[in-house]
UniProtKB/TrEMBL annotation:
Keywords: Methyltransferase, Transferase. It comes from the Bacteria. The lineage of its organism: Bacteria, Bacillati, Cyanobacteriota, Cyanophyceae, Oscillatoriophycideae. Residues 293-397 form the C-methyltransferase domain. This is Methyltransferase domain-containing protein.
Amino acid sequence: MTQTKISTDLYSGDRRIEQTCPNCGHSHLSTFYEVKQVPVHSCLMMPNEAEALNFPCGDVLLAFCDRCGFITNLKFDSKWSAYAPNYEDQQSFSPTFNKFAIQLADRLIEKYDLHNKNILEIGCSKGDFLILLCERGNNRGVGIDPSVVPGRVQSEAADRITFIQDYYQEKHAEYVGDFICCRHTLEHIQPTSEFIKIVRRSIGDRTDIPVFFEIPDTVRVLKELAFEDIYYEHCSYFTPGSLARLFRNSGFEVTDLYRDYGDQYLMIEALPIAESKSEKVHPFEESLEELTQQVQYFASHIQEKLDIWRDRLSQLQAENKKVVVWGSGSKCVAFLTTLDTLDKIQYVVDINPHRHGKFIPGVGKSIVSPEFLKDYQPDAIVVMNAIYCNEIQEMLDRMGVRAELMAL
C-alpha cells in the first residue's frame, strides 16, 4: 500500500540531514515529501497483469538544497535505471505535441543556423526530435539512448542519422558536432553535476557549440501541487535557478532560459566557456528565498490536493460511475499509486499504439485505444495533462462519446 508523508518545516531537526547535494556539493538537504512503494519505472511496458503487479517498487523522499535550489529523491537507486527498447515514452502520436515539437525544431534551426550541420542528441528516445532537426534543416544526426529502436520512425533523413543504443559517456565525444540537444533526460540522472561536466569535457576547447536542454519545470509542480509529476524514475527536479546554477558551475554560460508547452517545460540554452565557472546570472532565475517559499507552500498544501482527488474518485465509485484515465505514462502511474486508488479506475486510455494491449508497471491496468471508448461509454475521463483536453474532446466528439473530462 502506498503511503504519503509530508513535512511543512524544512529546517526542523529531523528533516535537515547530512547529505551531499549531487547538483552543487552542499553538505545538507531538507526533506519535505515522501511516498512509499511506488513503481521504479513508469514506462516499461509489461506483457501481462501478473508481471505488472509484481513490478519492483521503491520509495520517493524528496529533499531540497537551500544553497542551489536543487530537489532530489534521496531514495533513488540507479540500479533500477534499466532503460531498454520496451521503455515506451514516445509522444509524437499527439497532434498537440507534434505541433510543439515542430515549432521548437524550426526555432532552433533558425536561431543556430542548423543547416547541413552535425547534431548530437543525448537521450533521443525513439528519435522523433532528432529526425525533425535533420529533415527540416538537412542535417546529419547521432542519437544516443538505451531505449532507442532504430527504424521505429520512418524518415527520408534516415541515411543521415545514426542511432546508438547506449547511455551517453565521454567515449561518445567523437560524435559531438555543431549542436547538442538533450530533452527530458537530465531529470532521470541523479549525479547531475557529474553528467553536465561530462558533456562539457566532451566538447573540449570548442566554445562555439550551443547546447539545448529541456526538462520538466518544478516551479509549476510546486505551485500547482502537481503530485502526478513526482515519481521514482524522476530523481532530479529543477527550477530555472537551480538549472542555471548547474550549467554555470560546469563550464557553460547560460544564453537563454525560459518555459514552454503551457509552462510545463523548462528550457536552457548555453555555450561552453574557457573558464571553469560563469558568473553571469540570467534574469529568469528565481531567488533561493522565493524557491524556499514555494517548497514550503507545496509541503503545507499537498495533503489537501490528495484528499480532494481521493474524495472525488470515491464519490464517482459510490455513484457507480464508469471512470477511465486518459494517458498511461508516468503521470498516470504517479496519480494512481500516490492516491492508492487502483480499484476506482477501470481502464487506462492512450493514443500511442505501441502501448495498446500492454500493462502498466505497478498498476496492472491494461492500456486500451481511444476507440475502445465507443462501446464502453465512460461517465468520466480523468485527463492526466490538461494541455491535451481540446485534442481529446475532438476525438470523443468524433466517436460519439459523451463523458465528463476531469483534468489534473
